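Milestone 3.1: sequence recovery, worked example.
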């Protein structure tokens, strides 16, 4: 029997392993994977980029790089973030191995065992596993269709006997809830945090994936609001806009936070892959990102519309959901007397998987929701998947009626 550390006992890490397995199950119709479809990747563009690189840059691809990141990529990212209204002049960019590493670095930088972290409920599964591994005390605040519940947040902060280290939120096309915070809710959140000393960790992996050009302004990050009395760390990712296999993310923070974060990263992996950074930089610098994003937005909109249409056609009336304005997810609400785990057990035998609501609850209990991802689905499988899922839900609803008699 090995004497494992307490850090390996994260319940949500086990959920991630299970999710990765389900997402890549070949014989299944999978609504589980929160990732792009393989057929959408810019393979040809990346081939062309690599083949046209000068020999000395190709050699650099195979070399170590600076811990903070490949300097030309940092420059390209500065332009990209400036276009989003972020004050890059007053902040520093750290390139990370996926945005999950950024969350991990920030957690290591600030959190000791037993420290409090505030999250939304539901919350991103990857972040929850990081917080659990750090042995943090996680307190969650419910969200509604417009964002985090402000009154619940206020009373949570007032009720705590010590100051939380940070509040972790995903305001744009939330994973798993699919919502986007309204500008009013973003402002209210900043007002609540003002002067408290609680850092806001703003995770923004999906803001480029809006469906309607006229609603792009809704994706404006809170870090670009210019709040003087709230410390905001902003994280982003290339996983949803270029490919998860690049393992590229970044964080934007004040100089002081950046300095310590760089030290933490150095101990983690010395540097992020130069190979991937060089390819990503060329993709940005050669202005290939925006046309590719337009293509992705159309693809995801098409998939979302198909899923929305078939849900309306086949789902029993007891099931409700909000139609997303961007991103990857639809978050179904079940009647309170049935659990998404029961539905999963039924649907998986018929070849359809999704992610249960319990997975995204920091306490791993609340199970009246289920997450459907449309991003990875072949379009011609969506209707069949919804039919099987709705049959499974009907069966569980039937059984619950019989049991209550």
């Amino acid at each position: 029997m090995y004497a494992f550390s307490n850090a390996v006992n994260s319940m949500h890490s086990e959920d991630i392993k299970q999710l990765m397995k389900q997402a890549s199950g070949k014989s299944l119709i999978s609504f589980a994977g929160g990732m792009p479809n393989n057929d959408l990747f810019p393979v040809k563009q990346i081939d062309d980029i690599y083949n046209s690189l000068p020999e000395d840059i190709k050699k650099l691809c195979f070399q170590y790089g600076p811990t903070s990141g490949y300097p030309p990529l940092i420059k390209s990212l500065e332009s990209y973030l400036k276009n989003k209204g972020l004050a890059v002049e007053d902040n520093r960019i750290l390139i990370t191995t996926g945005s999950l590493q950024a969350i991990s670095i920030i957690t290591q930088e600030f959190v000791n065992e037993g420290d409090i972290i505030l999250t939304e409920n539901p919350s991103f599964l990857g972040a929850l596993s990081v917080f659990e591994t750090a042995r943090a005390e996680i307190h969650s605040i419910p969200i509604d269709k417009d964002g985090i519940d402000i009154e619940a947040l206020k009373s949570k902060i007032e009720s705590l006997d010590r100051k939380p280290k940070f509040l972790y939120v995903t305001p744009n096309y939330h994973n798993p809830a699919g919502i986007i915070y309204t500008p009013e809710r973003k402002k209210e959140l900043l007002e609540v945090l003002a002067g408290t000393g609680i850092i806001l960790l703003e995770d923004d992996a999906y803001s480029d994936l809006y469906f309607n050009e006229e609603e792009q302004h809704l994706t404006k990050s809170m870090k670009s609001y210019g709040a003087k009395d709230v410390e905001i760390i902003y994280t982003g990712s290339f996983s949803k806009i270029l490919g998860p296999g690049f393992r590229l993310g970044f964080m934007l923070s004040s100089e002081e936070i950046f300095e310590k974060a760089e030290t933490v990263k150095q101990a983690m992996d010395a540097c992020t892959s130069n190979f991937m950074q060089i390819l990503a930089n060329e993709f940005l610098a050669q202005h290939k990102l925006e046309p590719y994003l337009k293509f992705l937005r159309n693809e995801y909109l098409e998939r979302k519309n198909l899923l929305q249409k078939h849900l309306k056609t086949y789902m029993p009336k007891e099931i409700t959901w909000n139609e997303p304005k961007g991103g990857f997810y639809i978050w179904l609400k079940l009647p309170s007397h049935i659990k998404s785990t029961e539905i999963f057990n039924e649907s998986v035998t018929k070849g359809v998987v999704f992610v249960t609501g319990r997975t995204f609850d920091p306490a791993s209990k609340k199970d009246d929701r289920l997450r459907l991802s449309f991003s990875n689905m072949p379009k011609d499988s969506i209707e069949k998947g919804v039919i099987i899922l709705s049959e499974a839900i009907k069966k569980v609803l039937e059984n619950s009626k019989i049991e209550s008699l």
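The chain has a mean pLDDT of 94. The chain has two domains: 10-42+294-404, 43-285.
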